Amino acid sequence: MTLIPRTRSFQPPAHAPGYKSTVARSPSRALISGPATATEQTGPVFGHEVLGEHDNNLILNYTGQPAIGERIIVHGRVLDEFARPISGALVEVWQANAGGRYRHKKDNYLAPLDPNFGGCGRTITGEDGSYEFLTVRPGAYPWPNGGNDWRPMHIHFSLFGASFGQRLISQMYFEGDPLIARCPIVNTIPDQAAIDRLIAPLDMTRALPLDCLAYKFDIVLRGSRQTMFENRMEGL
Fold this sequence. Notes:
It is a single chain. Strand 5 and strand 6 (149-151) form a beta hairpin. The longest helix is centred in the first third of the chain and has 5 residues, at 21-25. By secondary structure, this protein is mainly beta. It contains three helices and eleven strands, in the order H-H-E-E-E-E-E-E-E-E-H-E-E-E. The protein has a single domain, classed as Protocatechuate 3,4-Dioxygenase, subunit A. The chain is globular. Residues 1-26 are annotated as: Disordered.
């Protein structure tokens, strides 16, 4: 079967001075490609049975007491380039709390930590490739890139294939956030269509009345409709 070609023009340059970290991180020599080894392709693997009851509920999974913030549902499907569902995939997320602060010792933003919010969760995709998380809307936060740069509200996504060596990482943004267009990281992506695929639209069909809004974020692993990934720019 012929694979749908990748849209290589979507990929950001390795050296993007507006995103200052790339200046030191970008390679100074030509990249070398090496074949994947059997270890990378077949193991180690994750155990599906180790997931807990509330692993996909970031509101409760840290202490059992509800986190502070606007409750939201984030859901979608993981698909291949032919829109076929990817079942049994491990999906992990991590994010800042409602005030825009991560539970990390190096995060010194002035926003307070929420004692009941850990900021991470995981789930396994269903037979139809579906996943769902219950969480709070993360806050925007400043970062020392320029004089007054702010990261938009976002959630980090990690997807694993058959083993830990097969991992893709991306970020999900929220429809209507004015900071998306001002973010130096987002602006390294040269094609607006690629950026749009990282923005989750509001989904009122899944919103719970008097409880929470919902956002839909489908993830496509390869092909012309591929989601933008950070660690493997061309997908699996």
